[in-house]
Amino acid sequence: MIRIKKGMALIMSAFVFFGSASAVFAETETCIPDSQEPSVNCEESNNSALMAALPEEKMSDQTDNVVKPFSGFKDAQSHWAKDTLNRAYNDGILSGFEDGTMRPDTKITGAQMVTIITRVLNTQEKADISGYNLSSNCWYRDAAAESLALGIIEPSQVATLDTKMVRREACAMMSDAFQLSDANPDFGKAEVYSDFNTLSMKYKIIFASLVNKGYIQGYNGSLMLANDITRAEFITLLYRVAGNYLNTSDVTDYSALTCGTVLNGSSFEAQDCNIPQKIWLGAGISSVDMKNVKASEIVIRGDVLEKLSIENSTLNRLVLASRGGDVNLNCSGISRVVAGSGTGNVYLSPRGNIVEVTGSGRNVILDELASELSISGNNNVITVNSSADVEKLNILGQNNTVKVDSYVREMVIKGKGNTVSGLGTAENVILYTSKSNIDINQGNVSDKTDSGITGMTASISAPVKLVPGNTLTAKLKLSNYPAGKTVKVIWYKDGKEVKNENITLNSSEASAYSAYIAYSESMPASCKISAKVEYTTFDDEKQTVSAQDVTVTYDKSSSSFFDSIVAKVTTYYKGNRTTQWAIDHNLSNYEKEVFVNYKGYSSATKYLIWVNIGTQYTSVFLGSKGNWKLVRSGLVSTGANDCTPRGVFKTTYKQSNWTTDTYTVKPIVRFYGGGYAFHSRLYQPGTMTLKSGNNGVGYPLSHGCVRMQADDIQWLYDYVPNGTTVVVY
Asked: What pLDDT, on a 0 to 100 scale, did the predictor assign at position 16?
């Protein structure tokens, strides 16, 4: 369970998406008596604030009372986030589990995230969530109500908070909570990632801002936005955004604050100081008073802002994101003013600076010159008075009402449903959508409307009949495609999605799907392959072009093909008792899969184990009957006197070791009659030192058990559950 405790440091900087390390599958003993049973470049700072622990229900299988050195958590020592996990454990954010694991790759839910975020921001007010079917004793009920009130989540998210978060939604939640987005970010850095251009404008703005500011970066050319977010990833994100948690009453020198500090209390009063780092004013702050202050960036995230006074001060960026309260602000000395989340009216005198509206449902009035006005939120009412000329007006959001009674040198409209009216004049107008209404005087108009993939057609080429041993390959071909646009291609086999990828259109042959088909006697006669192309225009119109289904018939008449593979498998060993002979006579991965699928073996678990006595290899498959895929295979040694039993069995139970006066084997996975098992080669008693002499692999040697190499038996012990089918053939 993630827990916030007294004195913990909440430190953050820039969320990096890391791919999870996948298991490496390597090439793959003596009977055991039944009697043996299983026994942003922000600096760290310290916190003095008190934060209550989160409820136990968050992760019921976790034990908070596991007290041990971090080095004792075996699954964290080689993890990519080891240092962050170590810090979080010492700070009390993460606890360990009874089995000695940290489980950094366990998925995080939205409920767990908002509970921590609302604690960090010290949220005060609760929205009415009586209509959302959350029980009165729901552990995250308060956090849901508080996060909804502050605009961290949308109403539609309340009912689904206790589900796993994907990275796209997790980053959007963090962006909303800490007001991280710019209204008109440069998309250049983010566009290098394959999944960026498939996003709606809302998410493009969020992720371009996060990439530009160094909060996130991609992995293998992708932001992997549809992936789940893990404990380690969220803790990394948390430590990289809000670096410190303090009460204003405890701060004597604001210039000493570190990057990402969240300040809480009832008021913020600063005078004659320099605040070089970005800070947040938490939800409890209702009064802000600054005199002779020089600051980098201040985000006001209070509940209801009752007072805002800024005198003789210089700020690079000021974000107004209180839940309520009107603001009337002379922006002299403030380079960039942002009307973020909230409900109060905002009256601004920009004095030639930049104004952004990133919130939605705001009422913003400008009465002096602005060098730039950018609107990324939705359903806002913006009034530009006759005295407030604007050098550049950018509208990226949707359904905004903008009244312009002044002069605008350049107006760019990318969002749909916007209305621009008034007595003003726009000298240059650039349109990326035809779905907004402009009713002011216009000079030069440049139409850059995104027509998307309108007029494009798609077809699939695939073999009519698939011969066993050949790979099924289907190719998507496009006509009248718009070169340079990034689209998502989704492939389906028998109506089930089997592949999706983001591609940039530069060829009529856009994408391909390949699959190895495991032939078996019980397999269907054919399959259907289909595909569709998706594209989202600048103004968020989702377009789809589908290709007609193609039927591929499986050629099951070539019985000689299967017979030739099955004939290679013998139930007896005929080698020369050397490891090299086994290596030279090993079946190919494909042949192993054909054999177990054609023979029709099934298993009560998702794994199947095959011990091939003829070649002295044990292979492990993942899947189900008729669709087994090889995941691990390695050399073994079976019974020296041909005493390993043949047949179909099941793994029964596991134990850590078996030790006699002359040897130790460990670990052990039993599979037949209690006395036959998979286990390691022989070690010196009570050690991990292999016994010398006749102790190899690749030829019959044991007393009937299946001796395996150390990595293989450990993998089998760790991952393959009891009840798995074991085929000895």
From this structure: 37
- Please count the structural domains in the chain: 4
DSSP string, 223-256: --TTSB-BHHHHHHHHHHH--EEEEGGG-S-GGG
pLDDT in tens, 389-414: 999 999 999 999 999 999 999 999 99
Q: In whole angstroms, give the CA distance from residue 698 to residue 612.
A: 11
Per-residue pLDDT at 283: 86
Strands 437-447 and 457-461: unpaired
Residue 693: count of CB within 10 angstroms of its CB: 7
* 657 within domain boundaries: yes
Cβ–Cβ contacts within 10 Å for residue 641, how many? Answer: 9
Report H helices in 661-727.
Answer: 710-719
Enumerate the β-bridge partners of residue 639: 702
Low-confidence ranges of the chain (pLDDT < 70): 1-67, 92-93, 243, 520-521, 557-561, 674
Which single residue is written with the structure tokens 């969320």? 15
Cα–Cα nearest to 603, from 569, 646, 651, 570: 651
- Within its chain, how far is the Cα of 518 from the centroid? 31
Shared domain for 190 and 271, answered yes or no, is: no
Final residue of a domain: which of 554, 579, 599?
Answer: 554
- For residue 586, tell me if it sits in a domain: yes
User: pLDDT value at position 93?
Assistant: 66
Q: How far apart are CA 175 and CA 160, in angstroms?
A: 19
533 and 575 inside one domain: no
Q: What are phi and psi of 712, to 5 degrees?
A: -70, -45
Length of the chain: 729
Give tens-digit pLDDT for 556-602: 766 666 777 888 898 899 999 999 999 999 999 988 998 998 888 99
Question: At which residue do the structure tokens 């080698």 appear?
Answer: 575
Tokens in use for 404?
Answer: 């312009």
Cβ atoms of 96 and 73 closer than 8 Å: yes
Integer Rg of the chain from CA: 32
Strand 629-637 versus strand 706-708 pairing type:
antiparallel
203, containing H or E segment = helix 201-212
Residues sharing a CB contact under 8 Å with residue 344, sequence separation 6 or more, in sequence order: 305, 322, 324, 325, 326, 327
From CA 337, how far away is CA 410, in angstroms rounded?
A: 20
Read out DSSP for 327-379?
EEEE-TTBSEEEE-S--SEEEEE-TT-EEEE-SSS-EEEE-S-EEEEEE-SSS
Q: Can you give the pLDDT at residue 92?
A: 67
Q: What pLDDT score does 64 carry? A: 43
State the distance between the two ends of the chain, measured CA to CA, in whole angstroms.
46
Q: For residues 625 and 603, what is the distance between their CA atoms, to the nearest angstrom?
A: 7
Query: How far is the C-alpha of 472 from the C-alpha of 400, rounded, in Å?
Result: 50
Q: Which domain, by its residues, includes 490?
A: 457-554
